[in-house]
Design a protein that fits this description.
CATH superfamily of the largest domain: P-loop containing nucleotide triphosphate hydrolases
Strand content: 5-15%
Largest sheet: 5 strands, parallel
CATH architecture of the largest domain: 3-Layer(aba) Sandwich
Number of domains: 2
Shape: rod-shaped
Radius of gyration: 44 Å
Number of helices: 12
């Protein structure tokens, strides 16, 4: 078996976005946790009594400043009215026949100026007729902090998903096995075992992801592909991999059950499918000596790329043909 593992990691942005959207439940929970934490912290850290005391202190200070301003205006009004009376008295005693036009203009201008001053001060005093409104006690701001916490939690959740996606060594889909190791796909049960709600189906349609076959269809596809890819004369097929023992045995049972089906009628001999748990197990390695071909059984989100690479290296050293891979 010639297997060249020359592979460069490339970030598939569309796949990354799909993974982020499919984690919408966890992202919402993370955002809600941060929202409750931030809003609760602000709510309990906020003291209504202290806020009310600060508001009353500010109110009393405003009243004191208001009274001081009123007193200043009343003083200005009294002085302005006194000056106006003096000017009016002076104007009454002036001999209009002997006064010059220039002096009369100065007296008139001064009287008008003082009258304007009296009017402006009176208007300012009238504005103090309304009472200072009582201050409102400020709110805790828990809602605003909760909203900020929700946004921050959602951002951190997305960041965590991206880091996990980039750093993960787990098998995410059959495409990973095909692109990285060039393995044939004998069958994939990931779509058949996945339960999608309406939101998940909507996300799948957005990214052009088609629903997987049913369990029965996936079994038939697996058997048909195995029959097509088996070499002529192969009698003993070893199923192994880094998936759990139950997955490996299940794949073997599916193929044994399908042996009498139409997909295997074109084979000159009836193959025997044996299953072992791990390819690194001594018993499995001994079984490799007597088998003709190997089918790798992996589990999505459990099997590691590094383990699969070791498996393929061992099979290459033993010159064993890999028929393909099955993914649960």
């Amino acid at each position: 078996m010639e297997q060249e593992n020359v592979y460069e990691d490339e970030i598939d942005l569309k796949e990354l976005l799909y993974v982020i959207f499919r984690k919408w439940r966890g992202l919402i929970i993370c955002a809600l946790v941060f929202a409750v934490a931030a809003g609760g912290y602000k709510y309990f850290a906020f003291s209504a009594g202290d806020a009310e005391a600060e508001a009353m202190e500010s109110y009393e200070k405003a009243l004191a400043d208001r009274e001081k301003a009123r007193a200043d205006l009343e003083t200005q009004l009294e002085s302005s009215e006194a000056v106006l009376k003096l000017l009016e008295g002076y104007a009454e005693g002036v001999d209009m026949q002997n006064i010059s036009v220039e002096d009369l203009a100065v007296i008139t201008e001064n009287m008008l100026s003082v009258q304007d001053r009296v009017k402006s001060v009176s208007d300012a005093l009238d504005s103090f007729s309304e009472e200072e409104p009582m201050p409102e006690v400020p709110s805790s701001g828990a809602v605003k902090y909760g909203a900020l916490g929700f946004v921050l939690g959602g951002f951190l959740g997305v960041f965590a998903v991206c880091v996990s996606y980039l750093m993960s060594d787990k098998v995410r889909s059959m495409k990973d096995l095909q692109r990285r190791f060039g393995l044939r796909s004998l069958g994939s049960f990931e779509g058949a075992m996945k339960r999608n709600g309406p939101i998940d189906r909507l996300i799948d349609r957005m990214f052009g992801v088609k629903g997987g076959p049913s369990i029965e269809e996936a079994c038939g596809i697996m058997a048909a592909n195995t029959a097509n890819y088996l070499s002529e004369g192969s009698k003993k097929i070893l199923l192994t991999g880094s998936a759990a023992k139950a997955d490996v045995e299940k794949a073997a049972e599916i193929l044994r059950a399908q042996t009498e089906g139409e997909g295997f009628l074109n084979l000159p001999v009836k193959p025997e499918f044996i299953s072992e748990e791990l390819i690194t197990d001594p018993k499995t390695i001994r079984a490799l000596a007597s088998c003709d071909e190997v089918i790798l059984v992996e589990r999505k989100g459990v099997s590691r790329m590094s383990d699969l690479e070791e498996e393929l290296m061992l099979l290459k050293n033993l010159e064993k043909k890999v028929t393909g891979a099955v993914l649960f």
